[in-house]
Protein backbone atom coordinates (compact mmCIF):
# COMPACT_ATOMS: atom_id res chain seq x y z
CA UNK A 1 0.00 0.00 0.00
CA UNK A 2 1.40 3.40 -0.97
CA UNK A 3 1.45 5.82 1.92
CA UNK A 4 0.78 9.55 1.60
CA UNK A 5 3.84 11.71 1.93
CA UNK A 6 2.72 14.67 4.06
CA UNK A 7 1.30 14.57 7.55
CA UNK A 8 -2.12 16.11 7.99
CA UNK A 9 -3.81 16.51 11.35
CA UNK A 10 -7.60 16.54 11.32
CA UNK A 11 -7.73 17.74 7.73
CA UNK A 12 -5.04 20.41 8.07
CA UNK A 13 -1.29 20.60 8.41
CA UNK A 14 -0.21 22.30 11.63
CA UNK A 15 1.86 25.44 11.46
CA UNK A 16 5.44 25.50 12.72
CA UNK A 17 5.30 25.54 16.50
CA UNK A 18 8.70 27.03 17.16
CA UNK A 19 12.10 27.44 15.60
CA UNK A 20 15.39 26.30 17.06
CA UNK A 21 17.51 28.95 15.41
CA UNK A 22 19.38 26.05 13.84
CA UNK A 23 21.38 26.95 10.75
CA UNK A 24 23.36 24.53 8.63
CA UNK A 25 27.04 25.14 8.06
CA UNK A 26 27.84 26.85 4.73
CA UNK A 27 30.51 24.24 3.97
CA UNK A 28 28.48 21.12 4.74
CA UNK A 29 25.11 19.60 3.88
CA UNK A 30 25.50 16.59 6.18
CA UNK A 31 25.32 14.31 3.16
CA UNK A 32 29.05 13.95 2.51
CA UNK A 33 31.36 11.14 3.55
CA UNK A 34 35.01 10.24 3.12
CA UNK A 35 37.50 7.58 4.15
CA UNK A 36 40.35 7.91 6.63
CA UNK A 37 42.79 5.35 8.04
CA UNK A 38 42.97 3.87 11.54
CA UNK A 39 46.28 2.54 12.85
CA UNK A 40 46.44 -1.23 13.36
CA UNK A 41 48.16 -2.80 16.38
CA UNK A 42 48.98 -6.41 17.30
CA UNK A 43 47.40 -7.64 20.53
CA UNK A 44 49.18 -10.57 22.19
CA UNK A 45 47.25 -13.53 23.56
CA UNK A 46 46.66 -13.40 27.31
CA UNK A 47 48.60 -10.15 27.77
CA UNK A 48 46.45 -7.18 28.88
CA UNK A 49 47.08 -4.13 26.71
CA UNK A 50 46.53 -0.77 28.39
CA UNK A 51 45.55 2.63 27.03
CA UNK A 52 46.16 5.11 29.85
CA UNK A 53 44.67 8.61 29.84
CA UNK A 54 46.30 11.38 31.91
CA UNK A 55 44.43 14.66 32.35
CA UNK A 56 45.55 18.27 32.81
CA UNK A 57 44.52 19.97 36.05
CA UNK A 58 41.51 22.21 35.37
CA UNK A 59 41.99 25.93 35.93
CA UNK A 60 38.31 26.23 36.88
CA UNK A 61 35.30 23.93 37.07
CA UNK A 62 35.37 22.28 33.66
CA UNK A 63 34.63 19.01 31.97
CA UNK A 64 37.32 16.40 31.66
CA UNK A 65 36.96 13.46 29.33
CA UNK A 66 38.44 10.87 27.03
CA UNK A 67 37.36 9.02 23.93
CA UNK A 68 38.40 6.73 21.11
CA UNK A 69 37.06 4.60 18.29
CA UNK A 70 38.34 1.06 17.81
CA UNK A 71 37.76 -2.08 15.77
CA UNK A 72 38.62 -5.52 17.09
CA UNK A 73 37.42 -9.11 17.24
CA UNK A 74 34.26 -9.52 19.34
CA UNK A 75 36.10 -11.92 21.64
CA UNK A 76 38.44 -9.17 22.84
CA UNK A 77 37.43 -8.16 26.36
CA UNK A 78 37.29 -4.37 26.73
CA UNK A 79 36.98 -2.77 30.17
CA UNK A 80 37.24 0.77 31.52
CA UNK A 81 38.67 1.69 34.94
CA UNK A 82 37.63 5.27 35.68
CA UNK A 83 38.04 6.41 39.33
CA UNK A 84 36.64 9.83 38.43
CA UNK A 85 33.21 8.80 37.19
CA UNK A 86 30.96 5.76 37.41
CA UNK A 87 29.41 6.52 34.03
CA UNK A 88 31.24 5.51 30.87
CA UNK A 89 30.24 4.89 27.27
CA UNK A 90 31.30 1.55 25.76
CA UNK A 91 29.59 0.32 22.59
CA UNK A 92 31.39 -2.71 21.16
CA UNK A 93 30.43 -4.07 17.75
CA UNK A 94 31.77 -6.88 15.58
CA UNK A 95 34.20 -6.20 12.68
CA UNK A 96 34.19 -4.57 10.22
CA UNK A 97 32.15 -2.12 12.31
CA UNK A 98 34.03 0.27 14.56
CA UNK A 99 33.21 0.53 18.26
CA UNK A 100 33.55 3.47 20.63
CA UNK A 101 34.40 4.24 24.24
CA UNK A 102 34.64 7.40 26.31
CA UNK A 103 33.32 9.51 29.16
CA UNK A 104 33.04 13.11 30.38
CA UNK A 105 32.59 14.50 33.91
CA UNK A 106 32.69 17.74 35.89
CA UNK A 107 35.94 18.49 37.70
CA UNK A 108 37.65 21.42 39.43
CA UNK A 109 40.68 19.55 40.71
CA UNK A 110 43.27 16.98 39.73
CA UNK A 111 41.93 13.66 38.49
CA UNK A 112 43.21 10.10 38.57
CA UNK A 113 44.32 8.43 35.37
CA UNK A 114 41.79 6.38 33.42
CA UNK A 115 42.73 3.06 31.84
CA UNK A 116 41.09 1.09 29.09
CA UNK A 117 42.17 -2.56 29.11
CA UNK A 118 42.12 -4.94 26.13
CA UNK A 119 42.48 -8.68 26.68
CA UNK A 120 42.35 -11.47 24.07
CA UNK A 121 42.64 -15.23 24.47
CA UNK A 122 44.25 -15.55 21.05
CA UNK A 123 46.64 -13.25 19.21
CA UNK A 124 44.69 -10.72 17.17
CA UNK A 125 44.73 -7.16 15.88
CA UNK A 126 42.98 -3.96 16.89
CA UNK A 127 42.57 -0.69 14.99
CA UNK A 128 42.56 2.60 16.92
CA UNK A 129 41.26 5.96 15.73
CA UNK A 130 41.15 9.39 17.44
CA UNK A 131 42.49 8.32 20.85
CA UNK A 132 42.15 11.57 22.83
CA UNK A 133 41.68 13.01 26.30
CA UNK A 134 41.82 16.35 28.08
CA UNK A 135 39.82 19.33 29.28
CA UNK A 136 36.59 19.89 27.33
CA UNK A 137 34.46 22.97 26.78
CA UNK A 138 32.11 24.36 24.16
CA UNK A 139 30.05 27.53 23.86
CA UNK A 140 26.92 25.37 23.93
CA UNK A 141 27.65 24.61 27.59
CA UNK A 142 27.65 28.34 28.34
CA UNK A 143 24.28 28.65 26.60
CA UNK A 144 22.85 25.82 28.70
CA UNK A 145 23.97 27.64 31.87
CA UNK A 146 22.75 31.05 30.70
CA UNK A 147 19.34 29.66 29.68
CA UNK A 148 18.84 27.75 32.95
CA UNK A 149 18.94 24.44 31.05
CA UNK A 150 21.49 22.72 33.25
CA UNK A 151 19.80 19.36 32.66
CA UNK A 152 21.66 19.42 29.33
CA UNK A 153 24.93 19.23 31.27
CA UNK A 154 24.10 15.85 32.80
CA UNK A 155 24.87 12.34 31.52
CA UNK A 156 27.59 13.79 29.32
CA UNK A 157 29.20 10.38 28.85
CA UNK A 158 26.33 9.44 26.51
CA UNK A 159 27.57 11.83 23.79
CA UNK A 160 31.22 10.82 23.89
CA UNK A 161 33.55 10.66 22.02
CA UNK A 162 31.82 13.04 19.55
CA UNK A 163 31.58 15.76 22.22
CA UNK A 164 35.35 15.84 22.65
CA UNK A 165 36.02 19.54 22.05
CA UNK A 166 39.37 19.60 23.85
CA UNK A 167 40.61 23.01 25.01
CA UNK A 168 43.57 21.53 26.89
CA UNK A 169 44.92 18.16 25.82
CA UNK A 170 46.00 15.35 28.11
CA UNK A 171 48.29 12.46 27.24
CA UNK A 172 47.36 9.00 25.96
CA UNK A 173 49.85 6.23 26.62
CA UNK A 174 49.42 2.94 24.71
CA UNK A 175 51.15 -0.05 26.29
CA UNK A 176 51.65 -3.67 25.18
CA UNK A 177 50.30 -3.03 21.70
CA UNK A 178 52.69 -3.41 18.76
CA UNK A 179 52.13 -0.96 15.92
CA UNK A 180 51.79 -2.64 12.52
CA UNK A 181 52.58 -1.30 9.06
CA UNK A 182 49.04 -1.68 7.76
CA UNK A 183 46.04 0.52 8.48
CA UNK A 184 42.27 -0.08 8.44
CA UNK A 185 39.78 2.16 6.63
CA UNK A 186 37.36 4.13 8.79
CA UNK A 187 34.46 6.04 7.26
CA UNK A 188 33.54 9.57 8.29
CA UNK A 189 30.35 11.56 7.65
CA UNK A 190 29.92 15.32 7.73
CA UNK A 191 27.73 17.16 10.22
CA UNK A 192 25.66 19.91 8.64
CA UNK A 193 25.98 22.07 11.78
CA UNK A 194 29.62 21.88 12.88
CA UNK A 195 30.99 20.58 9.52
CA UNK A 196 33.18 18.01 11.29
CA UNK A 197 33.69 14.62 9.68
CA UNK A 198 32.98 11.98 12.34
CA UNK A 199 33.06 8.15 12.29
CA UNK A 200 30.10 6.10 11.08
CA UNK A 201 29.59 2.43 10.23
CA UNK A 202 28.62 1.75 6.63
CA UNK A 203 28.31 -2.05 6.71
CA UNK A 204 25.72 -1.93 9.50
CA UNK A 205 24.46 1.63 9.98
CA UNK A 206 22.25 0.51 12.87
CA UNK A 207 25.49 0.29 14.86
CA UNK A 208 25.65 3.99 15.56
CA UNK A 209 28.73 5.99 16.48
CA UNK A 210 28.55 9.79 16.04
CA UNK A 211 25.14 10.07 14.35
CA UNK A 212 21.69 8.71 15.18
CA UNK A 213 19.67 6.84 12.56
CA UNK A 214 17.15 8.63 10.39
CA UNK A 215 14.73 5.88 9.28
CA UNK A 216 14.23 2.80 11.45
CA UNK A 217 10.61 1.71 11.23
CA UNK A 218 10.40 2.58 7.54
CA UNK A 219 13.85 1.46 6.36
CA UNK A 220 15.37 1.48 3.83
CA UNK A 221 15.99 5.21 3.99
CA UNK A 222 15.88 6.74 0.51
CA UNK A 223 16.28 10.38 1.49
CA UNK A 224 19.21 12.26 -0.01
CA UNK A 225 21.77 13.30 2.60
CA UNK A 226 20.27 10.90 5.15
CA UNK A 227 20.37 7.54 3.41
CA UNK A 228 22.26 8.53 0.27
CA UNK A 229 25.76 9.86 0.94
CA UNK A 230 28.20 11.34 -1.55
CA UNK A 231 31.94 10.65 -1.40
CA UNK A 232 33.70 14.03 -1.33
CA UNK A 233 36.77 12.57 -3.04
CA UNK A 234 35.34 10.39 -5.82
CA UNK A 235 31.85 11.85 -6.20
CA UNK A 236 30.32 8.37 -5.97
CA UNK A 237 27.21 7.81 -3.87
CA UNK A 238 26.43 5.07 -1.37
CA UNK A 239 23.01 3.90 -0.14
CA UNK A 240 22.53 3.20 3.56
CA UNK A 241 19.73 1.05 4.93
CA UNK A 242 18.64 3.12 7.93
CA UNK A 243 20.47 6.36 7.12
CA UNK A 244 21.89 8.92 9.53
CA UNK A 245 20.70 12.29 10.79
CA UNK A 246 22.29 15.32 9.12
CA UNK A 247 23.69 16.66 12.39
CA UNK A 248 25.98 14.77 14.76
CA UNK A 249 24.63 13.68 18.13
CA UNK A 250 26.35 16.62 19.85
CA UNK A 251 24.83 19.24 17.54
CA UNK A 252 21.45 17.50 17.64
CA UNK A 253 21.42 17.83 21.43
CA UNK A 254 22.66 21.39 21.76
CA UNK A 255 21.64 23.19 18.57
CA UNK A 256 18.31 21.53 17.82
CA UNK A 257 16.78 19.96 20.94
CA UNK A 258 18.01 22.45 23.55
CA UNK A 259 16.76 25.63 21.78
CA UNK A 260 13.38 24.00 21.14
CA UNK A 261 12.92 22.49 24.58
CA UNK A 262 13.56 25.74 26.46
CA UNK A 263 10.11 26.87 25.23
CA UNK A 264 8.34 23.75 26.45
CA UNK A 265 6.13 24.09 29.50
CA UNK A 266 5.96 21.66 32.40
CA UNK A 267 2.48 20.64 31.21
CA UNK A 268 3.85 19.79 27.77
CA UNK A 269 6.63 17.71 29.29
CA UNK A 270 4.04 15.85 31.38
CA UNK A 271 1.88 15.16 28.33
CA UNK A 272 4.85 13.69 26.45
CA UNK A 273 5.57 11.42 29.41
CA UNK A 274 1.97 10.23 29.37
CA UNK A 275 2.08 9.56 25.63
CA UNK A 276 5.13 7.32 26.00
CA UNK A 277 3.06 5.05 28.21
CA UNK A 278 0.20 4.69 25.73
CA UNK A 279 1.30 1.34 24.33
CA UNK A 280 1.70 -0.08 27.84
CA UNK A 281 -1.73 1.26 28.75
CA UNK A 282 -3.22 -0.17 25.56
CA UNK A 283 -1.85 -3.66 26.21
CA UNK A 284 -2.91 -3.56 29.85
CA UNK A 285 -6.49 -2.53 29.05
CA UNK A 286 -6.71 -4.91 26.11
CA UNK A 287 -6.07 -7.88 28.40
CA UNK A 288 -7.39 -6.26 31.59
CA UNK A 289 -4.14 -7.21 33.27
CA UNK A 290 -0.65 -5.81 33.72
CA UNK A 291 2.13 -8.38 33.18
CA UNK A 292 3.97 -6.98 36.20
CA UNK A 293 0.92 -7.26 38.46
CA UNK A 294 0.12 -10.69 37.06
CA UNK A 295 3.64 -11.80 37.89
CA UNK A 296 3.21 -10.69 41.51
CA UNK A 297 -0.11 -12.50 41.82
CA UNK A 298 1.25 -15.64 40.16
CA UNK A 299 4.54 -15.90 42.06
CA UNK A 300 4.11 -13.74 45.16
CA UNK A 301 7.34 -11.96 44.23
CA UNK A 302 8.26 -8.67 42.58
CA UNK A 303 9.27 -8.80 38.93
CA UNK A 304 12.06 -6.25 39.42
CA UNK A 305 13.65 -8.27 42.23
CA UNK A 306 13.60 -11.50 40.24
CA UNK A 307 15.07 -9.90 37.10
CA UNK A 308 17.77 -8.20 39.18
CA UNK A 309 18.80 -11.50 40.76
CA UNK A 310 18.45 -13.49 37.53
CA UNK A 311 21.03 -11.25 35.87
CA UNK A 312 23.38 -11.51 38.86
CA UNK A 313 22.74 -7.86 39.77
CA UNK A 314 24.75 -6.69 36.76
CA UNK A 315 24.00 -5.01 33.47
CA UNK A 316 23.62 -7.80 30.92
CA UNK A 317 25.35 -5.78 28.20
CA UNK A 318 28.37 -4.15 29.88
CA UNK A 319 28.43 -6.15 33.17
CA UNK A 320 28.38 -2.99 35.29
CA UNK A 321 27.39 -3.69 38.90
CA UNK A 322 23.79 -2.72 39.74
CA UNK A 323 23.90 -2.16 43.52
CA UNK A 324 20.11 -1.98 43.85
CA UNK A 325 16.96 -2.47 41.80
CA UNK A 326 16.69 1.32 41.77
CA UNK A 327 19.88 1.47 39.71
CA UNK A 328 18.61 -1.16 37.27
CA UNK A 329 16.67 -0.35 34.12
CA UNK A 330 14.14 -3.04 33.17
CA UNK A 331 14.45 -3.36 29.42
CA UNK A 332 11.70 -4.70 27.20
CA UNK A 333 13.95 -7.38 25.70
CA UNK A 334 11.70 -7.27 22.65
CA UNK A 335 10.79 -3.59 22.24
CA UNK A 336 7.59 -1.93 23.36
CA UNK A 337 7.65 -0.20 19.97
CA UNK A 338 6.68 -3.62 18.56
CA UNK A 339 3.96 -4.10 21.21
CA UNK A 340 5.93 -6.38 23.54
CA UNK A 341 5.00 -5.67 27.19
CA UNK A 342 7.37 -5.66 30.13
CA UNK A 343 7.18 -9.15 31.63
CA UNK A 344 9.35 -11.97 32.98
CA UNK A 345 11.39 -11.93 29.73
CA UNK A 346 12.78 -8.49 30.65
CA UNK A 347 16.53 -7.77 30.69
CA UNK A 348 18.54 -5.99 33.39
CA UNK A 349 20.50 -3.07 31.93
CA UNK A 350 22.27 -0.02 33.28
CA UNK A 351 21.00 3.44 32.34
CA UNK A 352 23.62 3.95 29.62
CA UNK A 353 23.01 0.63 27.87
CA UNK A 354 19.24 1.00 28.12
CA UNK A 355 19.50 4.42 26.47
CA UNK A 356 21.69 2.97 23.72
CA UNK A 357 19.34 0.07 23.05
CA UNK A 358 16.18 2.21 23.00
CA UNK A 359 13.68 0.52 20.65
CA UNK A 360 16.15 -1.82 18.95
CA UNK A 361 15.23 -5.50 18.81
CA UNK A 362 17.85 -7.83 20.33
CA UNK A 363 19.22 -8.86 16.92
CA UNK A 364 20.22 -5.26 16.22
CA UNK A 365 21.92 -4.66 19.56
CA UNK A 366 23.61 -7.90 20.64
CA UNK A 367 25.98 -10.26 18.85
CA UNK A 368 25.23 -13.97 18.39
CA UNK A 369 27.02 -15.01 21.58
CA UNK A 370 25.01 -12.49 23.60
CA UNK A 371 21.80 -13.65 21.93
CA UNK A 372 22.51 -17.23 23.00
CA UNK A 373 23.21 -16.11 26.57
CA UNK A 374 20.08 -13.95 26.61
CA UNK A 375 18.01 -16.91 25.43
CA UNK A 376 19.20 -18.96 28.41
CA UNK A 377 18.33 -16.18 30.85
CA UNK A 378 14.98 -15.03 29.49
CA UNK A 379 13.55 -18.32 28.22
CA UNK A 380 12.97 -16.84 24.76
CA UNK A 381 14.26 -18.97 21.92
CA UNK A 382 17.17 -17.81 19.80
CA UNK A 383 14.77 -17.67 16.84
CA UNK A 384 12.43 -15.33 18.76
CA UNK A 385 15.33 -13.07 19.70
CA UNK A 386 16.80 -12.99 16.21
CA UNK A 387 13.56 -12.04 14.46
CA UNK A 388 12.50 -8.38 14.98
CA UNK A 389 8.83 -9.30 14.67
CA UNK A 390 5.97 -7.38 16.32
CA UNK A 391 3.65 -9.01 18.85
CA UNK A 392 1.18 -10.63 16.45
CA UNK A 393 -1.05 -11.81 19.29
CA UNK A 394 -1.67 -8.22 20.39
CA UNK A 395 -2.21 -7.08 16.81
CA UNK A 396 -4.75 -9.83 16.17
CA UNK A 397 -6.57 -9.06 19.40
CA UNK A 398 -6.73 -5.36 18.52
CA UNK A 399 -8.10 -6.01 15.05
CA UNK A 400 -10.68 -8.46 16.37
CA UNK A 401 -11.78 -5.89 18.97
CA UNK A 402 -11.96 -2.85 16.71
CA UNK A 403 -15.11 -1.49 18.28
CA UNK A 404 -13.58 -1.46 21.75
CA UNK A 405 -10.33 0.08 20.50
CA UNK A 406 -11.86 2.90 18.44
CA UNK A 407 -15.01 3.58 20.46
CA UNK A 408 -13.75 3.10 24.02
CA UNK A 409 -9.97 3.22 24.28
CA UNK A 410 -9.32 6.05 21.80
CA UNK A 411 -12.15 8.15 23.24
CA UNK A 412 -10.48 8.49 26.62
CA UNK A 413 -10.20 12.21 27.49
CA UNK A 414 -6.40 12.09 27.69
CA UNK A 415 -6.23 10.63 24.16
CA UNK A 416 -8.51 13.27 22.67
CA UNK A 417 -6.44 16.21 23.88
CA UNK A 418 -5.11 18.43 21.13
CA UNK A 419 -1.88 20.34 21.52
CA UNK A 420 -0.91 22.60 18.65
CA UNK A 421 -2.61 20.46 16.06
CA UNK A 422 -1.64 17.06 17.43
CA UNK A 423 -4.33 14.76 18.78
CA UNK A 424 -2.86 11.90 20.77
CA UNK A 425 -5.37 9.34 19.44
CA UNK A 426 -4.30 10.13 15.89
CA UNK A 427 -0.66 9.62 16.82
CA UNK A 428 -1.49 6.27 18.40
CA UNK A 429 -3.15 4.88 15.27
CA UNK A 430 -0.25 6.03 13.12
CA UNK A 431 2.21 4.40 15.52
CA UNK A 432 0.20 1.16 15.24
CA UNK A 433 0.37 1.27 11.45
CA UNK A 434 4.15 1.54 11.78
CA UNK A 435 4.06 -1.70 13.75
CA UNK A 436 2.09 -3.42 10.98
CA UNK A 437 4.56 -2.32 8.31
CA UNK A 438 7.49 -3.73 10.33
CA UNK A 439 6.05 -7.24 10.16
CA UNK A 440 8.04 -9.63 8.03
CA UNK A 441 6.04 -12.80 8.67
CA UNK A 442 2.47 -11.55 8.31
CA UNK A 443 1.17 -9.22 5.62
CA UNK A 444 -1.60 -7.19 7.23
CA UNK A 445 -4.20 -5.95 4.78
CA UNK A 446 -5.41 -3.53 7.38
CA UNK A 447 -4.75 0.05 8.41
CA UNK A 448 -5.58 1.57 11.80
CA UNK A 449 -5.33 5.02 10.18
CA UNK A 450 -7.89 4.15 7.49
CA UNK A 451 -10.30 2.65 10.01
CA UNK A 452 -9.88 5.68 12.27
CA UNK A 453 -10.73 7.98 9.35
CA UNK A 454 -13.80 5.91 8.46
CA UNK A 455 -15.13 6.11 11.99
CA UNK A 456 -14.17 9.70 12.77
CA UNK A 457 -14.77 11.35 9.39
CA UNK A 458 -11.20 12.61 9.74
CA UNK A 459 -8.45 12.85 7.19
CA UNK A 460 -5.40 11.65 8.98
CA UNK A 461 -2.58 10.54 6.69
CA UNK A 462 0.43 8.42 7.46
CA UNK A 463 3.86 10.02 6.98
CA UNK A 464 6.69 7.47 7.13
CA UNK A 465 9.15 10.26 8.05
CA UNK A 466 7.19 11.42 11.08
CA UNK A 467 8.85 10.85 14.45
CA UNK A 468 6.38 8.95 16.61
CA UNK A 469 8.90 7.89 19.26
CA UNK A 470 7.16 9.99 21.92
CA UNK A 471 4.11 7.73 21.64
CA UNK A 472 6.01 4.69 22.86
Task: Write up this protein.
Helix content is 26%, strand content 23%. The chain is an alpha+beta fold. Strands 1, 3, 5, 6, 8, 9, 11, 12, 13 and 14 form a 10-stranded mixed β-sheet that branches. The longest helix has 14 residues.
The helical percent reads 25-40%
Proportion of strand residues: 15-25%
Low-confidence stretches: 1-21, 267-273
Number of helices: 13
User: How many individual β-strands?
Assistant: 18
Q: Assign the structural class, choosing from mainly alpha, mainly beta, alpha/beta, alpha+beta, or little secondary structure.
A: alpha+beta
Mean pLDDT: 84
Indicate the radius of gyration in whole angstroms.
Answer: 23 Å
* Largest β sheet strand count, sense and barrel closure: 10 strands, mixed
Estimate the global geometry from the Cα principal axes. Answer: globular
Termini gap: 24 Å
Name the descriptors.
globular; 472 residues; alpha+beta; disordered N terminus; four-stranded antiparallel β-sheet
Q: What's the helix and strand layout?
A:
Elements: E1 32-43, E2 49-54, E3 62-72, E4 77-81, E5 89-91, E6 99-107, E7 114-119, E8 124-136, H1 139-146, E9 166-169, E10 171-175, E11 177-190, E12 197-200, E13 228-231, E14 237-239, H2 249-261, H3 266-276, H4 278-287, H5 291-299, H6 303-310, E15 329-331, E16 347-349, H7 351-357, H8 368-378, H9 382-386, H10 392-400, H11 402-409, E17 418-419, E18 422-423, H12 424-437, H13 448-456
Parallel strand pairs: 1-13
Antiparallel strand pairs: 1-8, 1-11, 2-7, 2-10, 3-6, 3-8, 4-7, 5-6, 8-9, 11-12, 13-14, 15-16, 17-18
Amino acid sequence: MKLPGKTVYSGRRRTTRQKSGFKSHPDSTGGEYKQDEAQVFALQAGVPAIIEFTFPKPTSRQFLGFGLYFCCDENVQVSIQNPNSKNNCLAQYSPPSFSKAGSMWWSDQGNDNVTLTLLAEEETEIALFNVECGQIWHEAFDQAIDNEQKSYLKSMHTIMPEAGFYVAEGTCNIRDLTEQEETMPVHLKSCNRCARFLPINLDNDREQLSFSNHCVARAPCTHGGFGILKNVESGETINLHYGYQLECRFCKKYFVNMPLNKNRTAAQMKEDGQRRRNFELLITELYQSSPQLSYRHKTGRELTDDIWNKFDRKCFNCHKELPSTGKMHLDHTRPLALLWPLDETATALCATCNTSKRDKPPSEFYDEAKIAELSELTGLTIEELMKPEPNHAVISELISRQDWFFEEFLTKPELLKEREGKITAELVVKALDKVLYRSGEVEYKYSFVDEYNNRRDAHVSYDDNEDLSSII
